[in-house]
Each structure stands twice: as C-alpha cells, then as structure tokens.
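Dear H.,

Thanks for agreeing to be a second pair of eyes. The structure we're designing against is below in token form, covering all 350 positions.
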C-alpha cells in the first residue's frame, strides 16, 4: 500500500497525442494489440466502441466526458422490473439527494443500495440503469440507485457522505418499497469504493448484509502489476485513473483516508465490515486493487467471494447483453450476492 507520486510517470501515460491514438481503432483480431487476451466476444464489442474514435477520459474536459459517458452507457434496452420510482431525500449538505428505486416482481425482498461508477466525476442514474435493473432482476432485490455528488465540483468526502446518508435512509425506509429490512451495498468501479466506504463507516453491529464490489478502486497506488500490464486499457487506462484521483481528492492527505482508499483501513475496522463479493477482471488496470482488498478482508476474517475473470476488462458487467461470458459472470455475482443476503435473513430472491 505505497503512496507514490500520482504524477511520477505522467510522461509515460501521455506518450503520443491521446486523441490521435484513440482515433485508430484496435484490430480485434490482433493477438498482440491492446485487445489481446480479451474474450473474443468482448474483444469485438470493445473494438466497436473504440472505433467511434472517442478520446480517452483523461484527454477530455469533465463536461465532455460526462456527456460522452452518458451517451455511451445509457442503455436503450428496458430490462423489465416490477416498478421504478424516482425520488429525492435530504442530502448531508441540505440539498436534494436523488435516488431511483427498482422493485422486483416479487416482494418483500432484500435491498441493495447501489453506487454507479465513473471515477467519482462521471455517471448518472441513467448510465447505471442497466446495472441496477440486472441486480434487481437477478438478485431478486429492491435496488436503490444513488445519484451522489460528483467531483470536481464536490470533491472528497462529498460522495462518501452521500453514500452513508443513502444507506442510513434506506435502512429506515426499505419497508416502504417492499424491502425486508436486510440491506446490502453494491457499486461498480468508483461506486465500489463508495460501497466499501459506506460499509466501513457503518456503526458497530450495523454493517450491511453484503458489499458487492465490481472492479473497485481501493488505493491510489499505480505501481501494481495490473496497472503496468493494462496501462493502456481497454476502456480504462492508468492515465484515466490518475485524472480521476486528481479531480476527486482535495490534497494528498485524502489519499490516506480509508473512506477514499479502503485498502488503507486498519485491520480492526476491516474486521467489522460486511461480507464481500469482489469482482475483478484480468485485463483491468484495477484488477490488483480488488484482489488486494479481497485478500485483506480474508486476512481479518471477513467472508469473501472473489470472482476473477481473466478474459474480461474494466466495465464488462455493463456489456452483459452483448457478451455471453459477461452475462454468465453477472449470474455468478448475483448468485453470490443473493446467498449473502439470504444468510442475513433476506429471503429466497428469484
């Protein structure tokens, strides 16, 4: 858990003009190219995405990145659930905190509070709609998706404060939406960090029933093997994550805060956190972040299901409708999550 200078090898990440590089779509048949090692179906889908010529996240303004992320990942597919409801609660700062509640066909059901990805800077309820719907359908849970505040307008710890507030509110009100009172947390990428932080922040004896973390960011350490092997992506690069951290943190001091970097938590605090389902991908710069967090949790006696998919890349769960292997992986993580919720008394799911 070192804390190297986040800009120490910025020149290595910059290289040639990133916008020009992004305009050259990768050959999906190139075994030695940036898509090497990917599942064949995923390779074709990623090649299609990259053929759009969108510059990498770190080469865009935050505003442009937000618009593109929403366009790329807001799904046209309407996976049916029992019902949805948009509402807002009082946020920690006194402003509204928007939520979207997804109810499964059968209730009462356990509840998952879900936090979208996007490097703490990007993402909306709409861009995470497909993930929330899949969790609702496959886990058989009420899902409360949280539209937390984004950096750089709202740097750390604003998003964490929103996550904690959303979890507390859901505990108090889950029954109004068909929840059983068994509440877990889930999140993808930076949202996985928020889910872990909300679990760490829960009072003694009130840890969530599960923390389901999809390719989470758990530390600001760019020296891991997976950052080296997957520095150029696909779909997420080392330079992208550097940029996200710069926008998110107020100073380097924040990087040592376990609510920003859960891998920095003390053993005694980790030991009281929720049972975990940790999903990682072999072609993801963040693979070692998730694996290290799963290992730390095991070391202090927290039950962990670590599901690692060698041929997948960052964000693959959002491509489950196009990639059969990603679809099967979603079944795996949903089953593991459902088992943790059932063990906490959350019913049978679907």
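And this is the sequence the design step returned. I haven't edited it by hand at all.
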């Amino acid at each position: 858990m070192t804390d190297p200078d986040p800009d120490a090898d910025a020149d290595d990440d910059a290289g040639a003009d990133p916008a020009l590089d992004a305009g050259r779509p990768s050959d999906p048949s190139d075994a030695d190219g940036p898509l090497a090692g990917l599942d064949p179906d995923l390779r074709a889908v990623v090649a299609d995405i990259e053929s759009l010529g969108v510059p990498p996240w770190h080469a865009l303004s935050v505003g442009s990145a937000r618009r593109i992320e929403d366009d790329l990942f807001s799904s046209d597919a309407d996976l049916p659930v029992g019902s949805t409801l948009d509402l807002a609660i009082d946020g920690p700062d006194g402003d509204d905190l928007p939520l979207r509640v997804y109810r499964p066909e059968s209730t009462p059901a356990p509840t998952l509070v879900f936090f979208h990805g996007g490097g703490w800077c990007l993402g909306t309820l709409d861009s995470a709609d497909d993930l929330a719907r899949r969790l609702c359908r496959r886990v058989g849970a009420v899902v409360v998706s949280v539209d937390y505040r984004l950096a750089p307008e709202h740097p750390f710890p604003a998003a964490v404060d929103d996550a904690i507030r959303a979890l507390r509110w859901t505990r108090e009100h889950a029954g109004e939406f068909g929840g059983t009172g068994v509440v877990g947390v889930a999140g993808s990428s930076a949202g996985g960090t928020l889910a872990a932080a909300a679990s760490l922040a829960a009072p003694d004896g009130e840890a969530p029933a599960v923390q389901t973390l999809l390719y989470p960011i758990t530390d600001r350490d760019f020296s891991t093997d997976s950052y080296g092997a997957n520095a150029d992506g696909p779909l997420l690069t080392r330079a992208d994550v550097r940029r996200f951290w710069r926008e998110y943190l107020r100073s380097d001091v924040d990087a040592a805060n376990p609510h920003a970097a859960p891998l920095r938590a003390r053993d005694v605090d980790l030991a009281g956190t929720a049972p975990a389902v940790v999903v990682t991908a072999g072609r993801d710069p963040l693979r070692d972040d998730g694996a290290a967090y799963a290992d730390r949790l095991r070391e202090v006696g927290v039950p962990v299901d670590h599901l690692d998919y060698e041929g997948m890349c960052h964000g693959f769960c959002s491509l489950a409708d196009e990639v059969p292997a990603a679809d099967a992986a979603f079944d795996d993580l949903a089953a593991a999550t459902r088992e943790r919720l059932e063990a906490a008394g959350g019913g049978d799911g679907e």
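Two observations from my side: Confidence is low (pLDDT under 50) at residues 1-7, 9-30. DSSP finds twelve helices and eight strands in the chain.

Warmly,
E.
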